[in-house]
Specification:
Elements (H helix, E strand, L loop, with lengths): L6 E10 L5 H9 L6 E2 L12 E2 L16 H17 L12 E5 L5 H12 L6 H6 L5 H8 L6 E4 L5 H14 L5 E8 L3 H9 L22 E9 H6 L6 E10 L12 H13 L9 E3 L6 H14 L7 E3 L2 H4 L6 H15 L1 E2 L7 H11 L3 E2 L5 E2 L4 E8 L3 E8 L14 E10 L1 E3 L4 E3 L4 H6 L4 H4 L4 H17 L11 E6 L5 H14 L16 H10 L5 E4 L5 H14 L5 E8 L3 H9 L13 E9 H7 L5 E10 L13 H15 L8 E4 L5 H15 L4 E4 L1 H4 L4 H16 L5 E8 L3 E8 L2
Helix pairs in contact: 1-12, 2-5, 3-17, 6-12, 9-10, 16-18, 19-25
Length: about 750
């Protein structure tokens, strides 16, 4: 078993309702000081709850007022983490620093402003429109601080911040970078408040998790950790807080909003994180629990903690959401920062809101776990865990260690193969001028999808479910009890469920925050599509959704490949999915792209089954092609106000890196599946870069001329078409290449089996 590169935390940044920096927040948490108060930023007079945990800083005072509130909160926390770590962002070193940020609602404040202006007869601000998608957040933060490494936006709802730290660990250990700013950010907005209000999931008073369990209190904020390789940190003389040992990711495969009552998914992720960290359950001494305050979540988490740590009489747990509120995609990152502080200072924050009577009831429910109530405890601990559970049944956990520990994992190098392909593509419509897919109910019925289940799905989720089912069928995989935990899902999306987000927001602008739809709200989160796929198929393994612009489909291939190589799963479904509706038509017209040059909007979903060698061999699986290398690179210069800028240096770096990883030369490559989309500036730029590296004779194939600009789906389609070309003898090898927000380019090289 090889040693795995140590990852350490060298900087912390935090802003939330209980403080404007890490020390203030931690001191407030130890004192049980709550940031929950009456909501100020919108009218809740017709709602049954009026409570929220808002940051006491005006958006205009954050990052110079240049960004939407979610991004601005991320910039503030990242700035503190950078300063705390001693990183020099004006040095050459900054060009290699990556940014991985999680978010649940992304530019929800910008959504409200944009559609409020339209409801009032205006056009809506172009700046607000550009700030709406989650895909811009990490790139904007990276541009603000001149960080030139890989960026990714993780959009797994309330597990997003934790998953961002987990991905940063994997990227460092996979040799894709030495330093990452990892965390999450979300703003307080009417959309999530209206949604949780419609679900009757808000507490009318201040929430008190593991206690009254009457609902959550929403909050806002950002947490950012500098995750760095130990060798690099030592070399630059950095202060080291602690090690971050490992992580776990799992799926409930149960319900889009409720946790499994038996806690199975939560237990799975806790055990995965402990195993991946080289520890045992009895080693964990503190858990910063997800602890939302709803009855179903609290009951499931009580059960999972008591079961996983049975026999460990030395573990304490608390939920800091009782003070910070539930900060959605930022929650896991905020709690990770507080966990690091608790670990390194030996002071464990409490859950607040207990009366003497409540404390008596807690003793009966807690078992051997010490649920810290009202007052902090001082305790010298060595290993701590932070847990996050989310809509879609997504679970994530990370483990921190005060003592240095060299982790060994049983993850020998494997060859990776494409063993299944499932496609849903659009057909051109003269009426709409774009490409739209056929998703009639009969098609779903033929795959055993019942009408009651199908009715719950938004269009993005329908596209995703159909391609996922087809990919499993093509690969000859039947999900059962023997393999359900050995299969994972990685979804890339450029725009996510924008139709659901826009329609939900327009509805509450017209009718009021108290009139949100409980049926529609769950589909406004980006990871709903992955959640529904997990629920229908029964897949319970790794599950992550990445929103990073048009190249997200290829970035999902890269992330899925990494998940297999690090031993998390044997098989991954890697997907690119984006929709094309009247809302998309409106937004891309307002952006000035619809109708530009030869650009035509499209939609679709393409799922590829990526499988490690021994699993494929054991099943006797068909192998389309072998993944010989994957790489991402990002622009480090140019006009950073333009997050759709082209970059010759970044595209060239991604191509040269993937060639190096595969041990091949430019003259060895037989074809490229490129990202040209009909916009002349992009098409000409792309061909010129290829010509410089590969010469005049390289064959460049394009999918968007036949299926439209389907963003992440197009990127996955490039990969799938290349795999089919290799399998059917039209190519011996090739590279699929795509670009996305903030000039991030991804490339994957395939060869014949």
């Amino acid at each position: 078993m090889p040693d795995v590169k140590r990852c350490v935390i060298t900087g912390l940044g935090l802003v939330c309702a209980i403080g404007n920096d890490t020390d203030e927040c931690f001191e407030s948490a130890l004192k049980g000081r709550s940031g929950i108060a009456d909501v100020k930023c919108f009218d809740t007079s017709n709602c049954y709850s009026h409570k929220g945990a808002e940051v006491d800083i005006a958006t205009g005072d954050l990052a110079g007022g240049r960004y939407d509130r979610t991004t601005a909160l991320g910039i503030k926390a990242a700035g503190e983490a950078i300063a705390d770590s001693g990183l020099d962002m004006d040095s050459e070193e900054a060009s290699g620093i990556g940014v991985i940020l999680g978010s649940c609602i992304a530019g929800a404040v910008a959504v409200e402003k944009y559609y409020q202006a339209k409801e009032n007869g205006g056009k809506g601000s172009l700046e607000d429109l550009k700030a709406i998608p989650a895909s811009v957040i990490a790139g904007n933060v990276a541009d603000y601080y001149k960080a030139g490494g890989i960026t990714a936006n993780i959009v797994n709802a309330c597990a997003a911040g934790t998953l961002s730290v987990a991905l940063a660990i994997d990227l460092i250990r996979g040799g894709k970078g030495e330093i990452f700013l990892a965390g999450g950010c979300d703003a307080f907005a009417s959309l999530p408040f209206a949604g949780f209000h419609a679900l009757k999931a808000l507490d009318a008073n201040e929430c008190s998790p593991f206690n009254h369990s009457e609902g959550i209190t929403l909050g806002e904020g950002a947490g950012v950790l500098v995750v760095e390789s130990y060798e690099h940190a030592v070399k630059r003389g950095a202060k080291i807080y602690c090690d971050v040992l490992g992580s776990g990711v799992s799926s409930d495969a149960y319900h889009i909003t409720a946790p499994r009552p038996d806690g199975e998914g939560q237990m799975s992720v806790i055990r995965r994180a402990i195993d991946n960290s080289g520890l045992k359950a009895e080693d964990i001494e503190y858990v910063n629990a997800h602890g939302t305050g709803t009855a179903k979540n609290d009951e499931a988490e009580f059960l999972s903690l008591k079961t996983c740590f049975e026999g460990n009489g030395n573990v304490s747990a608390s939920s800091t959401k009782s003070m910070t509120g539930h900060c959605l995609g930022a929650a896991g990152a905020i709690e990770a920062v507080l966990t690091v502080k608790a670990l390194t200072e030996g002071k464990l924050p409490p859950t607040t809101g207990y009366t003497d009577e409540d404390l008596e009831a807690l003793k009966e429910k807690a078992g051997s776990v010490n649920f810290i109530a009202n007052k902090p405890i001082e305790k010298d601990i060595h290993y701590a865990m932070s847990n996050s559970f989310a809509f879609g049944g997504n679970n994530a956990s990370i483990v921190f260690a005060k003592d240095p520990k060299a982790i060994k994992i049983d993850a020998p190098r494997h060859d990776l193969y494409v063993t299944g392909i499932g496609m849903v593509t659009g057909e051109y419509s003269k009426e709409t001028g774009d490409y739209r897919a056929n998703t009639d109910s009969d098609t779903f019925k033929s795959y055993g999808v019942k009408t009651a289940f199908l009715r719950k799905l938004d269009r993005l989720s329908q596209l995703q479910l159909l391609s996922g089912i087809r990919a499993l069928e093509d690969a000859g995989i039947t999900v059962n009890e023997d393999n359900e935990n050995l299969i994972g899902i990685c979804i890339g999306t450029g725009d996510g469920p924008m139709t659901e987000i826009a329609n939900f927001q327009k509805g509450i602008i017209r009718d009021g925050v108290d009139k949100g739809s409980a049926f529609a709200f769950p589909n406004t989160v980006y990871n709903a599509a992955g959640g529904y796929l997990s629920i229908f198929t029964g897949i319970k393994g790794y599950n992550v959704t990445i929103a990073n612009g048009s190249q997200s489909g290829l970035q999902s291939i890269c992330a899925a490949s990494g998940a297999i190589l690090f031993g998390y799963e044997d098989i991954m479904l890697a997907t690119g999915t984006d929709e094309c509706t009247g809302i998309d038509d409106e937004l891309y017209t307002d952006l000035g792209l619809k109708g530009k040059d030869g650009f035509k909007l499209g939609e679709g979903s393409v799922t590829c089954v990526i499988e490690k060698d021994d699993s494929a061999f054991a099943r006797g699986a068909k192998r389309y092609a072998k993944i010989a290398g994957f790489s991402s690179a990002r622009d480090t210069s140019g006009d950073r106000s333009d997050n759709q800028r082209m970059s010759e240096s970044a595209l060239s770096e991604a191509l040269l890196n993937v060639l190096k990883e595969a041990g091949m030369k430019p003259e060895d490559i037989s074809c490229i599946y490129g990202f040209g989309n009909g916009i002349e500036e992009i098409d000409v730029f792309e061909k010129e870069v290829y010509k410089k590296i590969f010469g005049d004779n390289i064959e460049v194939k394009l999918v968007k001329q036949d299926f439209g600009e389907a963003r992440a789906a197009s990127a996955s389609l490039q990969f799938a078409m290349l795999a089919r070309d290799i399998d059917e003898g039209r190519a011996t090898n090739g590279i699929a290449v795509s670009y996305g927000t903030s000039a991030l380019y991804s490339a994957v090289l395939l060869t014949k089996v």
